[in-house]
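Chapter review. Work through the record for Serine/threonine-protein phosphatase before attempting the end-of-chapter questions.
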Amino acid sequence: MEFEPLAPDFLLESLHPHHARLSVTPPWSRGQRRHATRDLFFPLRRSLSLPCQLHLHALETRSDQSLTETKNEITEHPPPNAPTLAHAMSQPGAAAATDPSPSPASPPVVEWPEGGALTRDWVAGLAATLDWCSRHLPADRLPTVLPPALVQRLVLAAAAILHREPNLVRVDPRPGQAVVVVGDVHGQLHDVIFLLRDAGFPSEERIFVFNGDYVDRGAWGLETLLLLLAWKVLLPNCVFLLRGNHESKYCTSVYGFEREVMAKYKDQGPQVYRKFLRCFEDLPLATIIAGCVYTAHGGIFRGTVVLPSKRLKKGKKGRKNKADFTVDPTSMRLGSLDELLKARRTVLDPPWEGQNLIPGDVLWSDPSLEMGLSPNKERGIGLLWGPDITQQFLRTNNLKVT
Ligand SMILES: [Mn+2]
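Structure tokens for Serine/threonine-protein phosphatase:
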């Protein structure tokens, strides 16, 4: 089995002959083993020869941080000085030389570029500014550099592009064009900046697929997502952003992003937060890369649920709801890509009941060693799928990796 083209440093755990777990240990993890929170599953027996160069990157968060810790990290314990970014980023594909020159006194207020279109320099400047602010500026002063109107304009511009993408995006690299798949980044702005520079910035030579979970847990979810949205607006065909389970109202209200936005934008916070929520609804759910690699945050999904007939529902009027929405066991069949394309993804929180279950499955499901498809009882949403389902999904859709 030849894995060399996949990634230079990965760990392969053999769980099952058809069902292997690929964990990526990034070079900056300082020997500490980190897992992709969503591992990749594929059949072990088959040799992988992909029509494109595929790199996998995964980041795991340091730990869940309380907002106090978050604030301390920003105001009292900033990370060590980082090299300035603008120069490295303005050269596509350049391996950045680290430049330890001191940071500027204070960055100017970020304004939308004259002429209306984002440029590579502008995105480079935004990254440098976000980086500087994260190290030197108290969290609640961020609006003085990054005005709420600018944040909202950028989010809306990206959302308009994302909205036009189908649920399942076909990413078809040209010959010689590499694809970098990035796992959960969870508000780790500095890791993302490092990663983009390390892998080489998005360009005509390099496509990026980010596999969701941009916010929550880390202290800089807003900055991280803004930077990725800026790249999306700049290079919509080279940067693909998928939705993660954390890109939802529920997760962001529990795991930190909502509080982060409120801490940074105070009175304007609710407005800014709402814009981000609307943007989450526009994020596509999955990609197929080079016709053979399926990527999604959670994974495999069931076929469309058929509810009891209207006549039956009418008859039960008065005591509806639960009885009507009990999941029909026959719906526990593997979904098709066509069904995925037709699902309604514009939901703040993917429903765990009712008819529109595909978004919840794609974002929340987990692989399992048990055969078949079953409800994901531990999460209360999504599915568990077994090695046989991986095989069936790959074979049915003529894929090699999921
Ligand atoms: Mn995650």
